[in-house]
Design goal:
This protein is of the alpha/beta class and 477 residues long. The chain has 3 domains: 77 residues, Winged helix-like DNA-binding domain superfamily/Winged helix DNA-binding domain (Arc Repressor Mutant, subunit A), CATH 1.10.10.10; 137 residues, Aspartate Aminotransferase, domain 1 (Alpha-Beta Complex); 227 residues, Type I PLP-dependent aspartate aminotransferase-like (Major domain) (Aspartate Aminotransferase, domain 2, 3-Layer(aba) Sandwich), CATH 3.40.640. The chain has 14 helices and 16 strands.
Length: 477
């Protein structure tokens, strides 16, 4: 770690390179890892409030010259702070500190977030790298664009916009979502078909309350949180296996099926074309497909996969949210169900909460209309690709035998394990070493091979590399 010392003095042998800025001295750096040394020093200065929000960092050329190091080292160190959400950069304006650290949750917050999934928990104390899947990069939230859109909305909205509105959502957002989902996901819907909800969890709750079914097929392995949500409302989840082509459609015996066809959670498998055809044929015979399109915005190495709903809007209930693209705390999502189901769903939504808050809906509608939302997604995709690549490269170095799936898209991938040790025990040992991961068995309903589900969105590349090093060390033991 960088030492923050007093003024730089001269040795008899000549001048010592150094900077008045934070009293940085390149001589304090290790023989290797100069970029990490500098990034750690800057991060520590933000943590200890020696750098406050709004302060500008020195130009990269100036700091590099002061320290007698390559400008590329400074550029990379600044980029790490930007990736962590501690700084921002604009052409011509330099690099500016934007906030004190807020990327990593306090242990109590992390514990609460896992409690919502009702998962077994490792001790929270000592966790300093959280690789939980499904956690987006909260530091990437587009604060500037959101604030700009909110100001515009407040200047234009009428008094009527603040009253009790349609429980299905504001017309502006329903219209923008219908167009955006048609363009980007191939969804077929009119604005009135869109019901604005508080995320996919509420979409599942509304469906469970209104569908006249007592059991539903779910992917195995699959989202444990989704299973718990359905079970809470009295619908029994029944496992259907997943293989390399996705859900095994031939095993369906239930009246409805919940699945994640574009990027199966947690394996990352894409439902194959033949399985898509078989599933839609099954639905045409009277079954209902519930499509959870939870992270389709994040793809890196493959072409987009259209939503199932566009091929069979009368047999598919389509759900999505901004939880993985903006932040889960926004509580904004959408449900597009077959029209025969909509009256009951709207009644249940009204009875539940009278409808979502109007202002966030109108702000999101404006972000969609201006293109700011899509620009944000492009930036986030590039950021997440770098993080994914960093974790994969570090795993290749420290766990060369590792087998991973689901790397082409999403915010997580699956690391399969060899040996006889239960993955729950491997996860416990990782937690003891400060790394929080999900064992694959948490998301299984029936026994199967062990694995770890690794989320990479919420950590910068250097922390991901450190996590891989620790995992390699403990698996080597």
């Amino acid at each position: 770690m960088v030492r923050f010392e007093g003024p730089i003095h001269r040795h008899r042998g000549g001048p010592i390179s150094g900077s008045d800025f934070l009293q940085l001295r390149a001589e304090d750096a290790p023989a290797k890892g100069l970029t990490t040394w500098l990034a750690d020093g800057l991060r520590a200065a933000v943590t200890h409030k020696r750098l406050a929000p709004g302060e500008k960092l020195p130009p990269t050329r100036v700091l590099a010259a002061d320290l007698g190091i390559s400008r590329g080292v400074v550029v990379d160190a600044y980029q790490r702070l930007i990736d962590e959400g501690l700084a921002s950069a604009r052409t011509g304006a330099g690099t500016t500190i934007v906030a004190h650290p807020h990327v990593r949750d306090a242990p109590s917050d992390r514990r609460r977030s896992l409690d919502t999934l009702r998962l077994p928990l490792p001790p929270a104390d000592g966790i300093d790298i959280d690789l939980s899947p499904g956690v987006p990069d909260l530091a990437a939230f587009p604060r500037t664009a959101w604030l700009r859109a909110e100001r515009a909305v407040l200047s234009e909205m009428t008094a009527a916009d603040l009253g009790y509105g349609d429980p299905g959502g504001t017309p502006a957002l329903r219209g923008e979502l219908a167009g955006w989902l048609a363009r980007t996901r191939g969804v077929h819907a009119e604005p009135d078909d869109v019901i604005v909800v508080n995320g996919v969890a509420q979409a599942l709750a509304l469906l469970a309350q209104t569908l006249e079914v007592k059991r539903i097929a779910v992917e195995d392995p699959g989202s444990r949180g989704a299973r718990d949500q359905l079970a809470h409302w009295g619908v029994r989840p029944e496992p259907v296996p997943v293989d390399g082509e996705g859900l095994v459609v031939g095993a369906l015996t239930q009246p409805a099926a919940l699945l994640t066809p574009a990027h199966q959670f947690p394996t990352g498998v894409v439902l194959s074309p033949s399985r898509r055809r078989a599933l839609l044929q099954w639905a045409a015979g009277g079954g209902l497909v519930i499509e959870d399109d939870y992270d389709a915005e994040h793809r890196y190495d493959r072409a987009p996969v259209a939503a199932l709903q566009g091929s069979a809007p009368d047999q598919v209930a389509y759900a999505g949210s901004v939880s993985k693209s903006l932040a889960p705390g926004m509580r904004l999502g959408w449900l597009i169900a077959p029209r025969r189901l909509q009256p009951a769903l709207l009644t249940a939504k009204h009875d539940s909460d009278l409808g979502n808050p109007a202002l966030p809906q109108l702000v999101l509608a404006r972000l969609l209309a201006t293109g700011d939302y899509e620009r944000h997604l492009r930036n986030v995709r590039n950021r997440q690709r770098r993080r994914r690549d960093a974790l994969l490269a570090a795993l290749r170095e420290h766990l060369p035998q590792a087998r991973v799936t689901g790397v082409a898209a999403g915010l997580h991938f699956l690391l399969m394990l060899d040996g006889d040790e239960p993955d729950t025990r491997t996860a416990e040992r990782a937690a003891e070493d400060g790394v929080l991961v999900h064992p694959l068995s948490w998301h299984r309903m029936t026994p199967g091979p062990p694995g770890l589900v690794l989320g990479y969105a919420a950590n910068p590349p250097d922390m991901l590399a450190e996590a891989a090093r620790r995992l390699g060390r403990l698996m080597g033991r």
